[in-house]
Amino acid sequence: MLVVMRHDAREEDVRAVVEAIQAMGYEARPMPGRQRTTVGLVGNEGRVDGTRLTSLDGVQELIHVTQPYKLVSREWKQESTVVRLPGGLTIGGDEVQVIAGPCSVEGETQLLAAARAVKEAGATLLRAGAFKPRSSPYSFQGLGPKGLKLLALARQETGLLIVTEAVDPEGVDLVAEAADIIQIGARNMQNYSLLRRAGRAGKPVLLKRGIAATIQELLLAAEYLLAEGNADVILCERGIRSYDTQTRNLLDLSAIPTVHALSHLPIIADPSHGTGRRDMVPSMARAAVAAGADGLLVEVHPNPEQALSDGGQSLRPEQFDRMMGELRLIAEAIGRRIAEPVVART
Ligand code: PEP
Ligand code: MN
Q1: What's the number of CA atoms in the CB half-sphere (13 Å) around residue 69?
Q2: What is d(CA 333, CA 330) in angstroms, rounded to the nearest whole number?
Q3: Predicted local confidence at residue 341, as pLDDT
Q4: Using one digit for the tens of pLDDT, what is the confidence trace for 302-327?
Q5: Residue 298: which pLDDT band, with cuts at 50, 70 and 90?
Q6: Which residues contact 123 (CB under 8 A, 6 or more apart)?
Q7: How far from chain centre, in Å, is Cα 108?
Q8: Ligand 1, closest atom to CA 103?
């Protein structure tokens, strides 16, 4: 439930509402806004009887949040969340951020070549996994801490911000040191101890939709992050399992307007895992930007044939460069723009 205060409510009125909510056995979250303060009530399972609150000084109205998720809902917060990153980059505003790089960190030469290539083409963030949650225990599992060091080096060399995955709660702090955005992968979308830990890590979190998760489950997973106090959450549509084997997954582009309607959080699209096929990545990337995605996550490898993971869906640098040119046109056509790298090109 949300308690909306009048625009002329005093600080002591807000305090009284907070105390009343706490006395009722719930948690109160005051949210000062430009026009007025609202106080959120969390911790309830069913509908709360708010009669006691309506009569307090300065209270304008009570809004009952009808969705099972609260803090992530548009009912709770009407303005879209804009996640602010170092260097002034934003996710969720007018800019569309392109996050690109190899599936995995494989070594210094590979990572730096990928980083330079994606930066040259105009990506603003570098992605690459140091810890890889693979379907088979016999597949390459990532370079671990050494991979994180290489990501830090790539950040220093190129100025690109880093997106990399944390796979377990114990690893979150280490990942948070190297990452500008902590990725939670599809297989871990409902790993609640990981979500709670990531919610406390002090860095924005990129939460990927589970392999067979509904949008409601995705939003409930995001709620765990916000409930821990992390408001900087970016959702990612990366395709869901379907019956058709032509593509690796079914990229659900309708998730983009659906999430924008239900939630204030930004949502980006991953056409690489969404299709699993390099030849289809540019068209689905263009479609995702047209559908209103706040960013893209795209796999690019300097030499996809040699990739230790996901080579078949990784773009070659020249394909990525061409695609970026197309995306700029599409973004402009819908009143947005593809963000530029923060640091001047080298
Ligand atoms: C990845 O981004 O490389 C990855 C493993 O993605 P997902 O969790 O969506 O499969
Ligand atoms: Mn991958």
Answers
A1: 23
A2: 5
A3: 82
A4: 999 999 999 999 999 999 999 999 99
A5: very high
A6: 98, 99, 100, 101, 160, 298, 300, 320, 324, 341
A7: 27
A8: 3
**pLDDT tier, 287 (very low <50, low <70, confident <90, very high otherwise):** very high
CA-based nearest residue to 94, from 340, 267, 342, 339: 339
36: confidence class by pLDDT, cuts 50, 70, 90: confident
pLDDT tens, position by position, 135-192: 899 999 999 999 999 999 999 999 999 999 999 999 999 999 999 999 999 999 999 9
Is 3.30.70.1140 the CATH number for 2-63?
yes
Does residue 274 have its Cβ closer than 6 Å to ligand 1? Answer: no
pLDDT(34) > 80: no
Cα–Cα dist 95/89, whole Å: 8
**Is the CB of residue 213 less than 8 Å from the CB of residue 195?**
no
CB 28 within 8 A of CB 18: yes
Please state which of the four CATH numbers 3.30.2010.10, 3.20.20.70, 3.30.200.20, 3.10.25.10 is assigned to the domain occupying 83-338.
Answer: 3.20.20.70
- Angstrom CA distances, 97 to 54, 62, 275, 322, stand at 43, 37, 20, 16
CA dihedral 216, 299, 295, 74 (to 10 degrees): 10
Task: Locate the ligand 1 atom nearest the alpha carbon of residue 185 and give its number.
Answer: 8
How many angstroms separate the alpha carbon of residue 104 from the centre of ligand 1?
Answer: 10
Q: Which residues of 244-267 are buried (b: 16+ CB within 10 A; e: fewer)?
A: eeebbbebbbebbebbbebbbbbb
Q: Is 248 in the pocket of ligand 1 (CB under 6 A)?
A: no
Closest-CA residue, ligand 1 atom 1, reads: 103
Identify each DSSP E strand in the chain by its residue range.
2-5, 27-32, 37-42, 59-63, 83-84, 90-91, 95-101, 125-127, 161-165, 181-184, 205-208, 233-237, 267-269, 295-299, 337-338
Whether residue 238 has its Cβ less than 6 Å from ligand 1: yes
| In the chain, where the domains are located | 2-63, 83-338
Residue type, 32: P
